[in-house]
Amino acid sequence: MAASERRRIGVMGGTFDPIHHGHLVAASEVQSWFDLDEVIFVPTGQPWQKADRTVSPPEDRYLMTVIATAANPRFQVSRVDIERHGPTYTIDTLRDLSAQHPDADLYFITGADAMAAILTWRDHDELFDLAHFVGCTRPGHEMDEKTLEGLPADRVTLVEIPALAISSTDCRQRVQKGEPVWYLVPDGVVQYIGKHRLYHSKDSA
Ligand SMILES: Nc1ncnc2c1ncn2[C@@H]1O[C@H](COP(=O)(O)OP(=O)(O)OP(=O)(O)O)[C@@H](O)[C@H]1O
Ligand SMILES: O=C(O)c1ccc[n+]([C@@H]2O[C@H](COP(=O)([O-])O)[C@@H](O)[C@H]2O)c1
Description:
Blueprint: E1 7-14, H1 21-33, E2 38-43, E3 46-47, H2 58-69, E4 75-77, H3 80-83, E5 87-88, H4 90-100, E6 104-111, H5 112-116, H6 124-130, E7 132-136, H7 145-148, E8 156-159, H8 168-177, H9 187-195
Parallel strand pairs: 1-2, 1-6, 2-4, 3-5, 6-7, 7-8
Adenosine-5'-triphosphate (ATP) is lined by residues 14-17, 22-23, 26, 110-111, 113-114, 136, 138, 164, 166-169.
């Protein structure tokens, strides 16, 4: 198959605890920038670099991701990471998705903070053989030439996206304090959080 006939698939990996509009805007901007056929959101199973904190059950994070992406025909959600046993490594995510989509080139989407940490990821040398990496700007996280040090320049692109100073940590803390998360996360995700009492303090009504 000629390179021009190959499909282009974005891969948006994340803990998504909860998914918020920063994630959705990053995926949408990269879809448009690279004219991707689709973007597959991949909620992590066990995010090993977040082992020091409590993470919501994978099924809750998966369902919130499905709800948040349902309206966009180019967005899909994969269970590959939540169904694999053990810690989640992107090298496994990309191997699984490559096997499922042998006719596609993969574009792994990250924010500036994740891009700056890629050299700490398992088998990072091999990651760039399996996907092109796209780093999106994120408020509060520098992304410049230093971010690219040690990375293969032809396999990494930095993209400026509209700045949304939203984090899952802030969303969780807001719910815990009884503050609103309306318009930080999609409406259906606000409702899911309320219905399943995610992030609420134990003594809240
Ligand atoms: N506001 C944002 N703008 C751009 N990229 C973002 C934004 N929020 C998250 N990302 C990127 O999305 C991916 C998944 O992020 P993750 O699910 O860990 O969300 P988070 O808001 O960083 O969570 P937490 O606050 O719990 O660490 C990462 O690559 C991260 O850099
Ligand atoms: O492969 C690794 O070692 C690795 C280490 C940290 C994070 N990642 C991936 O980076 C993505 C964003 O992770 P996080 O922790 O910021 O939600 C998600 O797909 C993770 O699986 C991957």
